[in-house]
Amino acid sequence: MQNVRQTRWVRCLTTQDREKKKGNSFNLFSFPGDEFFDLLNLDSISAMKIDVEGFELEVLQGLKKTLLMYKPFVFVKYGIYLQRLTLAIKEKFRRSGSICEFLREIDYEIIGFGVRREQFSRD
Known about the structure:
Layout: H1 2-21, H2 33-40, E1 47-50, H3 56-62, H4 64-70, E2 73-76, H5 87-105
Parallel strand pairs: 1-2
Helix pairs in contact: 3-5
C-alpha cells in the first residue's frame, strides 16, 4: 500500500514540476500531513512551522496523529489583520479559538498567542 501511495505522489509531483517548467498551470494536489509523515517513516520530528494563510486548523487536524506521536514544537503563523471590524475578522477570531481548542485537546500547551501592533489600523 505504501509503495502505491509513494508512486502516486511522485507521479503527481513530477507532473506538476514538468507543467510548471513549461509555464502551464496545473492542479495542486493535497493530502493529510499524517499520510506524508507516514510515508517518510521518520524516527523523530522536533519542530514544525505552519504558515498556510487561513487553513491552519485544517492542517493541524490533518497532522493529529503525527502531533500525538512525535510531540514536536509547533509554530503556527496566524495573521489577524484588523483593518475594519467585519464578519471576516470575527471569523478569524473564532477560528483562532478553534485552533487553540484543538491544540489543548491533544495536550499541547500554548505558550504564546499575539497580534503584532503594526497589524492594527485605525481606519
